[in-house]
Amino acid sequence: MKSSFVRNAVIVGAALAAAVAIAATAVPSGPNKIMFPAGYDTGVLYATVDRYDVKQYREFYASADSVKAAREGRPLPYGTTLTLVPYKAKADASGNPIKDAGGHFIKDELVGIFVMEKRQGWGADIPADIRNGEWEYQVFTPEGKVNDKANLTACYECHKPFANDDYLTNLAKLAGKFPSAATVMAKTGANDVAISGFMFGPARVAVAAGQAVTWTNADDSPHQVAVAGKNTRSGVMLRGQSQSIKFDEAGMFPYTCGLHPGMKGTIEVVKN
Question: In which residue ranges of the chain is pLDDT below 70?
Fold first, then answer.
């Protein structure tokens, strides 16, 4: 059954990976309401993804009931547990990921277990400015113990902008609507940026004030542009989709992917 599911990025989102970063947290690390999801791998493997930026192979699991609800357009039921399972990609002597016959990473050492869970009444003790409805998050070590160094606040902050999608960064994949087979038309204009292999290319673009920059996603993962200092985010881009942002003021504007903060770029805006 697992072989029938496409290999893409999804739902739980890369935001959960950021949970292991060192940072001051508004949500305490350590044990909380979420217990280790024993038997998670007996559920539905609804997607996999090769993360080129961190050299990981990732698996995404949910219960059949949760997948069914998403694909019928219904709210995810209470009790939904979404589990992200990252592995280090098997690498050659130079540290480059080794690929299988299908061109995908081969999983090696387990990194940890990342969980988001929805229960009635949950979230009430989470600070209101980052609360994700009734979802809560937890990170476990490969041994199944709570990761006391996990920055759980990062999970809430990354998923917060997706309230309209029940706080899921890629509801399209869980719902079976991700356009995995979409043809991506390359754009090579001076103001165009391609997103491929979890990288922005070119990483630095210069435009005149008043012009827009257009990003086009060629990955089997959703992406979103988040411009630092402007409180500006593009819409989420699925494979083959584009988003544009207009820059009116001169200056240097660094940006990241709103879902994968390790992806970085810069827009240089010059006066006319």
Answer: 1-25
* Measured distance CA(130)–CA(128) in Å, rounded: 5
Residue 196: per-residue pLDDT:
96
Peptide bond just before 142 cis, omega within 30 deg? no
d(CA 132, CA 124): 10
Task: Tell me the fold of 192-270.
Answer: Immunoglobulin-like (2.60.40)
CA angle 25, 30, 35 (to 5 degrees): 125
Asked if 47 and 60 count as a contact pair (C-beta separation under 8 A), the reply is yes
| CATH architecture of the domain with range 2-174 | 3-Layer(bba) Sandwich (3.50)
**Residues shown for the chain:** 272
Domain limits, CATH 2.60.40.420, in the chain? 192-270
Element (H, E) at 254: strand 251-257
Which of 18, 19, 78, 70 has the alpha carbon at shortest distance from 44?
70
Rounded to two decimals, the pTM is 0.84
